[in-house]
């Protein structure tokens, strides 16, 4: 039987961690949406050097571990005098990592819009940027939303990496509670439940959006 | 920054040893997860009553949890209920639990992508359901699963670095040990370690793209 008293007695600590997990995920999502969009634009813009920068970013970041990126913010940059607290370092690491995946999702969404749309918009006198802004992007958004949802689920799960650098998230508080109570099994079961409270509704939501999009086609 | 000091031969050898553990853990885990993933995926595809619903709940739960939590669980929590695993086995079991769930979904969607007409044709030419699955559906589905499985393997290789929380002597752990000696080593070591992961993973992703291209 699970010892629910642990959950009740340490409710405040669990809530602290839960709050930080949500905060880190949302901040990293906003940051990586912005950064990811810029990189996606770099990748598809008709300017060669920008394409290279975008591709290099995506390929490099996607192929190295998140832990490494977080460590760069947590230990690497401080070694050259740029310091962050552990929560900020973790969130920045998450942002940089997730941006690469979001950029790919956005790029493939934009490229899923038929080429004729761009050609038609351009020949009716819109500039490249106007065509992007008024014709391509509004159509791409619909295609991109389910994969972005999946990235957000991954982001929430990946935010647990903050625990590795004492980043005040659920994992960190789980560690704290288990070292206070000398109980691990029950403590981490409750931590797991807190994660599921966030990820299961998100998964169901994304699944719903995916099915609706499939029907719309 | 001290590149010369950081890249001393002893350090390079130490990192390489760590990388071998990373590759070993990743390889063992992917093979085991592949076996479990196929079993779970096939059971869910064939919709064996009760069992397939149970597995659905299990798979969805695991897929929605952070891998880091599962690693903590296998190493710190299981001993509390009497199952003590050493670092290596704790890391491998956590990875296998997580990746089997991921791979089972790849297997299931691979199986479902095979045209229903194939089953009908095979069944009406006298094959039993199991024979149809084994000789007709699985071979075709497996070929389609190769690219997503390779990308899952890349994720797995990256995820082995999470085992740093239980100080498994893999690449990240060895990198951090060297970093602890001198703060001037940190950036050079991170650059080198990033390239080690990158080279292996990028080659794998090129391979996966090539396989995908060949199928079309």
UniProtKB/TrEMBL annotation, chain A:
* Domain ABC transmembrane type-1, first and last residues per copy: 18-206
* Predominant location: membrane
- Report the domain of life of the source organism: Bacteria
* Record's bilayer topology term: Multi-pass membrane protein
Q: Which InterPro entries match?
A: AA_ABC_transptr_permease_3TM, ArtM/GltK/GlnP/TcyL/YhdX-like, MetI-like, MetI-like_sf
Q: Name one GO biological process term.
A: amino acid transport
The answer to whether the entry has keyword Membrane is yes
Q: What is this protein called?
A: Glutamate transport membrane-spanning protein
Q: What is the lineage of its organism?
A: Bacteria, Bacillati, Bacillota, Bacilli, Bacillales
Automatic annotation (TrEMBL), chain B:
List, alphabetically, the InterPro entries matched.
AA_ABC_transptr_permease_3TM, ArtM/GltK/GlnP/TcyL/YhdX-like, MetI-like, MetI-like_sf
**Which ranges does the record mark as transmembrane?**
20-43, 55-76, 186-207
Q: Start and end of every ABC transmembrane type-1 domain?
A: 19-208
Q: Kindly state which keywords UniProt assigns to this record, in alphabetical order.
A: Cell membrane, Membrane, Transmembrane, Transmembrane helix, Transport
Question: Topology relative to the membrane, per the entry?
Answer: Multi-pass membrane protein
Q: Where in the cell is it found?
A: Cell membrane
Please tell me where this protein is predominantly located.
Answer: membrane
A Pfam short name: BPD_transp_1
What is the protein named? Answer: Amino acid ABC transporter permease
Per the UniProt record, the source organism is Geobacillus proteiniphilus
Biological classification of the source: Bacteria, Bacillati, Bacillota, Bacilli, Bacillales
């Amino acid at each position: 039987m699970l010892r629910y008293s642990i959950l009740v007695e340490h409710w405040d600590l669990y809530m602290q961690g839960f709050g930080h997990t949500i905060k880190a995920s949302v901040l990293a999502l906003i940051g990586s949406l912005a950064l990811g969009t810029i990189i996606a634009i770099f990748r598809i813009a008709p300017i060669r050097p920008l394409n290279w920068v975008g591709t290099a970013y995506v390929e490099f970041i996607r192929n190295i571990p998140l832990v490494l990126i977080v460590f760069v913010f947590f230990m690497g940059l401080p070694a050259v005098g740029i310091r962050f607290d552990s929560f900020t370092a973790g969130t920045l690491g998450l942002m940089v990592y997730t941006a690469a995946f979001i950029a790919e999702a956005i790029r493939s969404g934009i490229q899923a819009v038929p080429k004729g749309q761009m050609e038609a918009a351009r020949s009716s006198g819109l500039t490249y940027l106007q065509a992007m802004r008024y014709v391509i992007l509004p159509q791409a958004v619909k295609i991109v939303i389910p994969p972005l949802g999946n990235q957000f689920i991954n982001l929430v799960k990946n935010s647990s990496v903050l625990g590795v650098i004492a980043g005040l998230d659920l994992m960190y508080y789980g560690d704290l509670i288990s070292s206070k109570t000398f109980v691990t099994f029950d403590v981490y079961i409750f931590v797991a439940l807190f994660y599921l409270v966030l990820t299961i509704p998100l998964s169901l939501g994304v699944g719903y959006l995916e099915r609706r999009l499939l029907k719309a086609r | 920054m001290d590149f010369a000091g950081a890249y001393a031969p002893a350090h390079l050898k130490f990192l390489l040893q760590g990388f071998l553990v990373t590759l070993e853990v990743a390889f063992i885990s992917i093979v085991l997860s592949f076996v479990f993933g196929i079993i779970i995926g096939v059971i869910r595809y064939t919709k064996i009553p009760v069992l397939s619903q149970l597995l659905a709940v299990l798979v969805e739960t695991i897929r929605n949890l952070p891998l880091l939590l599962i690693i903590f669980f296998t190493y710190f929590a299981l001993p509390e209920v009497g199952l003590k695993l050493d670092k290596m086995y704790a890391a491998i079991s956590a990875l296998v639990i997580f990746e089997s769930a991921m791979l089972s979904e790849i297997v299931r969607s691979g199986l479902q992508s095979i045209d229903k007409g194939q089953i009908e044709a095979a069944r009406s030419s006298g094959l039993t359901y199991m024979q149809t699955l084994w000789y007709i559906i699985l071979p075709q589905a497996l070929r389609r699963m190769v690219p997503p499985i390779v990308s899952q393997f890349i994720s797995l290789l990256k995820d082995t670095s999470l085992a740093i929380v239980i100080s498994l002597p893999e690449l990240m752990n060895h990198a951090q040990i060297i970093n602890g000696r001198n703060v001037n080593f940190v950036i050079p070591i991170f650059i080198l370690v990033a390239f080690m992961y990158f080279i292996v993973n990028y080659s794998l992703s090129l391979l996966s793209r090539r396989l995908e291209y060949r199928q079309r």
